[in-house]
Amino acid sequence: MPRLRANDIEQDKIARFERIKKAITALEKQQKQILKQGDLAPEGAWVARYQVSQNRKKYWYYKLQVPTPSLPCATSSKLSKYKHLGKAGTQEHIDAVMSVFRRSVWDEIQRIIHTLDDCLLDISSGSEQEEEEAQD
């Protein structure tokens, strides 16, 4: 296989750079679509199921939970780790589940964009091809 000339190598770099930029643009467009669908849950949030016993009966409820207090309390001006959502299938429950889903998709897209940004740096800085250090 013949060696590539300097011009061919530069053209290849430009083409790869442009493909990555195009992919990043598509991912950012996806993020905008996600935001149009509704709110994102706070980072690290999840929907938890819990049980309450009352008058010898057991009831299941749901809550939005976060690792650090960031949710407004219904009864005070403090922040809480929990937001009561009620029973399964209530509008608040479904909204919370979907906001957690949107957050997870958003975060995954953001991780991919960061990875592709690193690829752009490799291409533009020339660090994708480095000389190995001689070993003794």
UniProtKB/TrEMBL annotation:
Keywords: Plasmid. It comes from the Bacteria. This is Uncharacterized protein. It comes from Nostoc flagelliforme CCNUN1.
